[in-house]
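Let's inspect a concrete specimen:
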Amino acid sequence: MSAKPKLKLLIAAPRGFCAGVDRAIRIVELALDQKAGAPVYVRHEIVHNARVVADLRAKGAVFVDELDAVPDGAPVIFSAHGVTKAVPAAAEARGLDYIDATCPLVSKVHRQAEKMAGDGRHILFIGHAGHPEVIGTFGQVEAGAMSLVETLADARAVVPPPGMPLGYLTQTTLSVDDTEAIVAELGRRFPAIEAPRSEDICYATSNRQAAVKAIAGRCDAILVIGSPASSNSLRLVEVAEKAGTRARLIDGPADLDASWLEGVKTLGITAGASAPEALVREIADALARDYDVSEEEAEGARETLTFRLPRGLEAA
């Protein structure tokens, strides 16, 4: 029998769940416990990860696209990405018992949008069209109060309403480097533009991107564990590739591709902020069936932040 080829796994740190994702999942689990088996409805995926959604569905969570699918009197939870103001208003109009699991760092952006718009500023919002967080943030202010800037080319071309003071905000899960370039261009074109009080890109996104940069030069390839809908996971792939290392997004062990790993001696592994640590172990175990695996965990920023649960769930 031929010996297994050697494969070193260089596992990035930090990786996986952030405080906002952990809080959102806990909210659904506690709501299910409190309802003692009754269905708990969740508007949209609570976080963008197929395994997390499947696990919560198995425990009794019912995921729906819109409130229309929630029966009268049933509890409903809003996802971590945030919602427009119209969503809780519609829930209240129907008398639905709802819990808002919006990440507090996304809620911070919502409040900044309200403040800037209330001060009469037009907001240039840096983000990705169609992402739930972007939709939710636009829904905090009057229509026309914000313009979307997706790329550096957009920053060079955007024409805000004449005569209005400006401000900018960003989606929390963007590429740090790409966003810096866009912000610099907006500052060049509009020197008086108001910045957010503090960085909008969340600590977890920044830390995970820094961790990928730190290991990229030591790896032949990098696997990013996360679902295709996960913005922060997609950005990790981009960060690895820009650092000169080929990278691939995988949802789980079933997505491993032996041909893609051919010739790889050192494989980096990271996980997006909505990907559970269990998937890291499952992928390492799957690789160990075909390779002589050794593991090293890279050192990175320590994360100790936690967020309080909504009132009423705290006692649980």
Summary: The chain is about 35% helix and 20% strand.
